[in-house]
């Protein structure tokens, strides 16, 4: 490369904007993360909610409904809602807790934690309870969420939740990264890593069953909480020849949800046919809630990669998929 050209390239890199604060739908505050090879992600402060994750070809990897309502108090339908301090309807709070419909702040003063020093496209968010929230859930906490778009395009979310109570009281919560993956055709999708695991079936009174030995495929509504799952789960989009690999830490459970046709029609913020193009696989901590004493901190991490299925030689063999990367 000629020297001038080289210098220009260098300049381009130095000027590169990894993190941009802007406005999204309905004027809501939004942060765009970009990486040099054209990967990108978008995060709304409303909900601390990732609403977009694109690969280097500009293809959207997360599902967001065309009917999503970007307006409080409804959580955004799609992307990655944060379920805290309660997953599901079981508890004293609204379904999936309140973190997904609160406005988070940018945390310019996040305590350091060991990360990859090559990560430049990241944002630190923080949620603390308002006086109103304290009436619903009488606990002080600091919830720090770091969202990183790694140089290779992986999307990483790390949650750090700390008990800040001054009354000496512990608190207990459940949690999930409620990730909506974009898939071409749900009937051509398989999930690997959950076979033979026990699950609670939300469609059958949370009764406990054991999954069969084959990878999971989809032909009707599913709403299951898989228990004590492995740290890697693969979602194979056969038609697009793309595999999502979900890696998780501190989150033993995994929810798998697709509303299918009837429930899709019943949801105001979800298109009737959209169930064909999404699948939720949610890294979670549900069966054994987390209890923190004052001063204690919990961490839960999720990392998503999207790779060509052919890259995982042996393709549909779960062992090969899960060991790659
Ligand atoms: O409609 P939402 O409150 O966002 O919940 C959407 C879905 O989330 C999870 O996957 C639950 O397991 C489902 O039971 C629920 O229907």
Question: What report would you give on this structure?
Answer:
With 325 residues, the protein is mainly β. The protein has a single domain (19-323), classed as Beta-galactosidase, Chain A, domain 5, CATH 2.70.98. The protein is 10% helix and 38% strand. It has four helices and 20 strands. The protein has helices spanning 3-15, 131-136, 260-266, 318-323; strands spanning 19-23, 29-34, 40-44, 49-54, 82-83, 105-106, 121-127, 141-149, 155-163, 171-177, 180-182, 189-192, 198-201, 207-210, 222-226, 232-237, 242-249, 253-258, 278-292, 297-308. The strands form three sheets. Strands 5, 10, 11, 13, 14, 15, 18 and 19 form an eight-stranded antiparallel sheet that branches. Strands 6-7-8-9-20-17-16-12 form an eight-stranded antiparallel sheet. The protein starts with a helix and ends with a helix. It binds 6-O-phosphono-alpha-D-glucopyranose (G6P).
Number of domains: 1
Cα radius of gyration in angstroms: 20 Å
CATH topology assignment: Beta-galactosidase, Chain A, domain 5
Detail the poorly predicted runs: 6-11, 312-316
Number of helical runs?
A: 4
Give the % helix: under 10%
**Which CATH class?**
Mainly Beta
Reading the helices and strands in chain order gives HEEEEEEEHEEEEEEEEEEEHEEH
- SS class: mainly beta
Architecture per CATH nomenclature, i.e. the level-2 architecture:
Distorted Sandwich
| Strand segment tally | 20
Estimated share of beta-strand residues: 35-45%
Approximate shape: globular
Bound molecules: 6-O-phosphono-alpha-D-glucopyranose
* End-to-end CA span: 32 Å
Largest sheet properties: 8 strands, antiparallel
Chain-averaged pLDDT: 92
